[in-house]
Amino acid sequence: MKIKTLLTVFILLTLITCKPQNSDLNSGGSNPEGIINIKENLPKNSAMNFVQNLGIGINIGNTLDAIGTNHWHAGETGWGNPQITRELIRALKNYGYKTIRLPVTWAEYIGTAPDYLIGDCVFADCTRCPDRMERVAEVASWILEEDLYCIINLHHDGGHSDKSWILNAPINPEETSAKFTAVWKQIAQKFSGVSQDKLIFESMNEIGFDDLWNRWSGGLNGKSEAFGLVNMLNQIFVDTVRSAEGNENRFLLIAGYWTDINLTCDPLFSLPSDKTDHRLILSVHYYDPSIFTIAEEHDNNWGFTDTWGSPSDYQHLTEQLNKLKINFLDKGVPVILSEYGVTFRNKKEEDRVKWMAAVTEYSLNYGICPILWDTGGEISRRPPYAMRETLKAVREKLENY
Fold first, then answer.
1. 343 vs 95: CA distance, rounded Å
2. What is the SS3 assignment for the chain?
3. Which residues make Cβ contacts (< 8 Å) with residue 268, sequence separation at least 6?
4. Which of 2, 201, 266, 294 has the greatest number of CB atoms lying within 10 Å of its CB?
5. Is the C-alpha dihedral spanning 86, 125, 68, 257 positive or negative?
6. Which of 76, 108, 319, 339 is catalytic?
7. What are the pLDDT digits (tens) for 323-382?
């Protein structure tokens, strides 16, 4: 997620209210000291155990996921960050992160049909972009060589840029499916046999089809079709990766509908089938309440608050995690919170600390791996890779993890 450009996805999240689904689990939601350790009573299998070993993670956002338009390409540095270095990876490791999510946008590097070959930038006048697959492989190798877990995905390929393409599925499902298959086939072949215990593939990022159906329309027309497309793409992802030699046992991260907890817990969303048992993990994001985590202006027309930390705030967090428990964790399906974060502008720093610490700690107690969304504001991308004081305070609160 590039927070400033995707506000509309979250505009009315705070208007969606939910009753607790399992009241005996909610006693820990009113304050940060009353957390119940949920994970000890969850089903045990290889995927559940795997996720509980991932620790705390961080995204290297707005870098390899940057994307431009039909007239300008972003490359790796187009959104203001320098190229990723091995020294940055080592700094993240030294800060205690065990998992790094590497958001990747491939759109500017994908050739034409029918092969959709990934290579150099598709702009003929580009002289500064390395082969995209080789560059992703280089950064991933740095992460793995530091004995960290690495997640690779398709990121703003599913966005709204001129070059994005996954959202074309309602208009041309066959072409989108063919391209999706070709891209994942090449990625799977490139990383064939590479650290199946450390390198994770994630199907896509924040995909939903609002042109067919959206949660605010009040109707059901198009809903089944919209969910069906996400389910179809997730199944293509699993089938394609599994068919590539050297990926038979790789853990695969399945994007929920819009990676939204409420929508992903809808009965219309379904996990794909997999011929390898206990290797699928659910991916969702957490930016609740959006009037705190995303809104930056006091006069924002859909609401704004600069504070967080009331009993009802903790209660809502618990209720959302309980939904994941009931619909997935209790069924032996592990969960990764592949993004969560809060903007800086016009926020009380002490409440940013409360929110990030609570989301992190609650997730860990549910056996969920939390991966902070960062675009260089929490940890600088330039030497000496300084950590923001707010994040230092969060990590101090989590010193036992």
1. 21
2. CCHHHCHHHHCCHHHCCCCCCCHHHHHHHCCCCCCCCCHHHCCCCHHHHHHHCCCCEEECCCCCCCCCCCCCCCCCCCCCCCCCCHHHHHHHHHCCCCEEEECCCCHHHECCCCCCCECCCCCCCCCCCCCHHHHHHHHHHHHHHCCCEEEEECCHHHCCCCCCCHHHCCCCHHHHHHHHHHHHHHHHHHCCCCCCCCEEEECCCCCCCCCCCCCCCCCCCCHHHHHHHHHHHHHHHHHHHHHCCCCCCCCEEEECHHHCHHHHCCCCCCCCCCCCCCCEEEEEEECCCHHHHCCCCCCCCCCCCCCCCCHHHHHHHHHHHHHHHHHCHHHCCCEEEEEECCCCCCCCHHHHHHHHHHHHHHHHHCCCEEEECCCCCCECCCCCCCECHHHHHHHHHCCCC
3. 223, 224, 227, 228, 257
4. 294
5. negative
6. 339
7. 999 999 999 999 999 999 999 999 999 999 999 999 999 999 999 999 999 999 999 999
Distance CA 179, CA 154 (A): 12
- Residue pLDDT, tens place only, 234-283: 999 999 999 999 999 999 999 999 999 999 999 999 999 999 999 999 99
Q: Where are the domains of the chain?
A: 3-397
Q: Which of the residues 76, 108, 202, 206 is marked catalytic?
A: 206
Tell me how far apart the alpha carbons of residues 178 and 131 are, in angstroms, rounded to a whole number.
Answer: 22
Place of tokens 């853990």: 251
CA separation, residue 333 to residues 46, 86, 272, 366 (Å): 10, 33, 12, 12
Q: What are the beta bridge partners of residue 54?
A: none
Q: Is 339 a catalytic residue?
A: yes
**Domain 3-397 adopts which CATH fold?**
TIM Barrel (3.20.20)
- Angle at the Cα of 337 (from 145 to 295), degrees rounded to 5? 120
